[in-house]
Amino acid sequence: MRDWDRRAEWLERAESLKPELEHWAVEPRALVEPEFCEDAWQKCRMRDLAPAAALRERAFGGGDSFTVDFGESVVGRLRLRMRPVGRNDSPLRLRLTAAELPYEASADFSGYHGGLSRAWLQDEVVNFDILPGEFVLPRRYSLRYLKIEILCVAEQVVFDAVEVIAEAAVRDLPEPPAALSPERAAIDRVALRTLRNCMQTVMEDGPKRDRRLWLGDLRLQARANAASFRRFDLIERSLLLLAAASDDDGRVPGCIYTEPELRHGNDTVDYALLFAPTLEDLVRETGDVELGRDLYPLAVRQYELFRPGIDADGLVRYDMEGWAFIDWAAFDRQMPMQGVAIYSLRALARLAERFGYAEEAQLRRAEAERLAQALRRFRYDADRKLILSGPEGEVSWAGQIWPILAGVFTPEEAREILLAVEQVPGAQRPVTPYMHHHLLEAYCFAGLREKAEAWIDSYWGGMVRLGADTFWEVYVPGDDFLSPYGDALINSACHAWSCTPACFLR
Amino acid sequence: MRDWDRRAEWLERAESLKPELEHWAVEPRALVEPEFCEDAWQKCRMRDLAPAAALRERAFGGGDSFTVDFGESVVGRLRLRMRPVGRNDSPLRLRLTAAELPYEASADFSGYHGGLSRAWLQDEVVNFDILPGEFVLPRRYSLRYLKIEILCVAEQVVFDAVEVIAEAAVRDLPEPPAALSPERAAIDRVALRTLRNCMQTVMEDGPKRDRRLWLGDLRLQARANAASFRRFDLIERSLLLLAAASDDDGRVPGCIYTEPELRHGNDTVDYALLFAPTLEDLVRETGDVELGRDLYPLAVRQYELFRPGIDADGLVRYDMEGWAFIDWAAFDRQMPMQGVAIYSLRALARLAERFGYAEEAQLRRAEAERLAQALRRFRYDADRKLILSGPEGEVSWAGQIWPILAGVFTPEEAREILLAVEQVPGAQRPVTPYMHHHLLEAYCFAGLREKAEAWIDSYWGGMVRLGADTFWEVYVPGDDFLSPYGDALINSACHAWSCTPACFLR
Fold it and tell me: Which biological process annotations from GO are given for this protein (chains A, B) (predicted)?
């Protein structure tokens, strides 16, 4: 019996950890309208029109529309309480558009041209036959803004309540550490709201899209969770679900679907290697050695499955198989993956040590050293203080960061490398907050704590200054409409992998 | 205390009679597609593409669409069971269009230009986040056809079930009398299906639109019900609801809304006068004299409220107040209303007699005679055998029919009148089945039973030959797109007032 044949057991254990979600009502803060603004993110910001209380003073006719700002990004279902004014002899027909960002709330979705399904955009056209009435709509939205267009109404309609019944595994955000500046306290709060909104029955990547459990995101969520909510049950459940969804070769998926039942999603070679570090983090936090031992063989298996991608010299092959995510940008994956592999091996070694598997620990440590030495010997340009990736010797930030995180270099060397890469024109910089997180870790390792903090202030703080109250999936300052999917409308504005400033600020 | 101050009591009694609806699943008969056809009603008919079983053999991609024919017009909610084929990483977005008629199923609703709310058209655009799954949609439709457009799908979707969970107070249609020809048996069946689909928690006028309880429709439904389902509880409940919704003057509304709570709808002077005949029919069928006595003062009150509309000669004033429906056409209402008033008085007189109110009976009978004599004296052209209405002495079919039904003329005179009006060019003929019903009654009174039957064969039979499996709200042979509301899309194809051939055929 291979160890990963215990998938049914893992699934059962995961299901026993399924959280009861918290539910709470969120009322609008204000009636708002989007306005074009050169300085605003995506050229659009919300202008207050009236306090929310004004809503129920106003009767809307056919063709009218309004937008409410819930004051906070939340995840949940809409509850509408509506009453007719005047004639009330026919149904009410509404178009509802839920949006995370002002631009999204203002856009005409018919122009959507992205590569991902337009069905992720959060709009419906529905009819309500009997008014007055209170209606809870079935679809779950991730939203801060809700636009309601009154397509048809008998005469007029008043909205006595427009609420989100918010839902998440946790509700209240822990207060920021007292020592933080107001700016950093705001960053911390936005980070934890991002995390909170992704904490559903599993750790989702983004509650608007894709609502999936990604191993790479989970690792970062687990770290932010350890610094805040400390709901390790949800981390354990998520990790067990990933384990339970591994394939017959023992390959842990990069992501899984959990509804209506567990399904294996994409295979992602870097994420699979991060199973071991994620497990290590959990065992360290909870002391649950039994769980650790249980999943350890599966963690080892991820490296075994990756090993054919390493050549005789101990270097990741240029033509390594599989999808190495690393970041949403086109750059060579060799050295980032070299770093991830070593990083994984070191976590395996530490886990083995913790479990008293001395020989196993020695084996993993030796393999990590072999890969680290190969990297230093063949791919490190000691003169330029840069790591070169792929057949062209490409320099990317990710290609420096992962080897640093893998402990291939001393902190002093790491500092030189991180300062050197800044000077390389055209070196691919981090695109997603996921990669930015790893840069922060690298700065910390290199003793560049101030640089890390300045980076948080500049990068995540930049989102806050642009109005974010959850952190975005994609943020490249100045590139407002950048999207990995061909249309910024589909970008997620509340994305798990962006929540990690909380780890550094706490 | 005025008698109609007992509205709360009537409402309570009505609520105690609220029926438990029957529910049953209706599966599609076939996959169909609309095709243009010069001979078809509204130039559109459905062509079979494949038996319904073919549906679950087929996977649909984005941009695909299909239409199913449920084989029978029903009222209910949709249940969809769907499963993904191939990639399943994003929601399914559908446009659902439920239709009673082929033309409606084929039309682009964005071109709708009618006067009634477009929200009555039965379409929604909704998203389903998690597949496979079974979904019951909240809206109640009246439909025979369902068009599903797959707006977005991850890869493909299979519809394992597309059902209507039908609902009505009754389910099975009584078999037609054995003596009927196949053609008339078909008419009977369509009539009873029409009635069945309108028998919900009240007797609705039309389950697509307006879903209201109209007193005029109720009277005809009650007659067809007496000849078939004999669910007098629902008639009593409906009549009590109308009584309970009367205003502080005791005016019974022409129609009421019952959801979410009882509301007075339009005032309709002819319908209000028909409260007494409707009550009389019910008491005659059930023998429930107690109910009759209870509501009798309210029935009298309708005539009292109308009486200011009658002049010193005993004729309905040209400038009588209020909306006299009579039929969906522009013609003078004086003589139709004269007939309705006398008709009402005679019912009151018979009720009073039944209850032993001798003096009251005498009073109503005398008033009926006064109005009848006035009509004969001032408005009957004995040479032309025609009744003249309004200041211009207008001749309309309704202006002949209602005085005949009121018993102002002998059967022989009635025959002369009915034959004479056929020869009057430009005389407004019946438009709706509601008025056609009264023509049938007039023919029967006049001893023209064969003419009545031929009329059923031609008029209602005409709808059946055009594919109707429920009778329509509006039918003027050859005028396919006629609508009282500016767009035939909004016409109801299952309308209570069209169900009465069952009274004549049974």
Answer: carbohydrate metabolic process
